[in-house]
């Protein structure tokens, strides 16, 4: 173990922040750290919108699930998959760009995730806390209009950043034995391992909420698969030029 691994394994989502602003230039340093992430074929298909206007913060909060920390955090960023720059660049070389391929969507979305995780690690190394906001995809069309996103750009998630005003415990992860496979995908003992993990998560929620939350990992997965989750995303992505061809 070293300090980097210690930092990575100590990640917590922070939802309460002090009103202390980030020092001058630190946000730019965090974004530069994001740019250092791996990127498929050097496409660098990520743009970041720093939202500072109070009225836009308030609107985003309402559109992304009324999570108050979107408005309260010293910094709020929206990470966007951006293939517009790349299409424009290719066309300047004389290429007739083929748009809307599923691989373009995958590449851009993966690029954004890698970029944002670098930002997250850099932020935590500076004593900051953060929380990803997937609720950005609740109303992606309205959010795109608010942020004036052009075609071939879509908002993937948001991120609150600031100095923590809480000290939550690290949420237990799945046991390594069910995540790390040897040579081929195996499910040996997975059911028993997950059952044990469910008990671990149940104990965690009971302790964290003072007995007010009766849940576990499996119960937490149920809503994702018991109905159609954000069914509007496909139509929205096609409208933005990601046609899934």
From TrEMBL:
Domain Nitroreductase: 9-163
Domain of life: Bacteria
Keywords (A to Z) from UniProt: Flavoprotein, FMN, NADP, Oxidoreductase
Keyword NADP belongs to the record: yes
Stretches of the chain forming a coiled coil according to its record: none
Pfam family for this entry, one: Nitroreductase
Family as reported in the entry's similarity comment: Belongs to the flavin oxidoreductase frp family.
UniProt-recorded name of the protein: Oxygen-insensitive NADPH nitroreductase
Organism this protein belongs to: Rhodanobacter aciditrophus
Name of encoding gene: nfsA
């Amino acid at each position: 173990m070293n300090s980097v691994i210690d930092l990575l394994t100590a990640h917590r989502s922070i939802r309460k922040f002090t009103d202390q602003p980030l020092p001058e230039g630190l946000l730019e340093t965090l974004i530069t750290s994001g740019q250092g992430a791996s990127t498929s074929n050097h496409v660098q298909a990520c743009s970041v919108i720093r939202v500072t206007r109070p009225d836009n913060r308030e609107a985003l909060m309402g559109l992304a699930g009324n999570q108050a920390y979107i408005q309260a955090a010293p910094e709020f960023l929206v990470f966007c998959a951006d293939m517009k720059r790349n299409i424009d660049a290719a066309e300047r070389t004389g290429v007739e760009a083929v748009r809307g391929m599923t691989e373009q969507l995958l590449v851009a979305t993966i690029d954004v995730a890698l970029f944002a995780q670098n930002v997250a690690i850099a932020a935590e190394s500076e004593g900051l806390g953060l929380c990803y906001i997937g609720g950005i995809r609740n109303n992606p069309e309205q959010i795109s209009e608010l942020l004036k996103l052009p075609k071939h750009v879509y908002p993937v998630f948001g991120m609150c950043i600031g100095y923590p005003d809480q000290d939550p415990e690290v949420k237990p992860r799945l046991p390594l034995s069910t995540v790390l496979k040897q040579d081929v995908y195996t499910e040996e003992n997975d059911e028993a391992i997950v059952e044990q993990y469910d008990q671990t998560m149940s104990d965690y929620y009971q302790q964290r909420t003072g007995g007010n939350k009766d849940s576990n990992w499996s119960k937490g997965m149920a809503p994702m698969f018991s109905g159609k989750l954000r069914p509007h995303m496909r139509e929205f992505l096609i409208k933005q030029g990601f046609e899934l061809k």
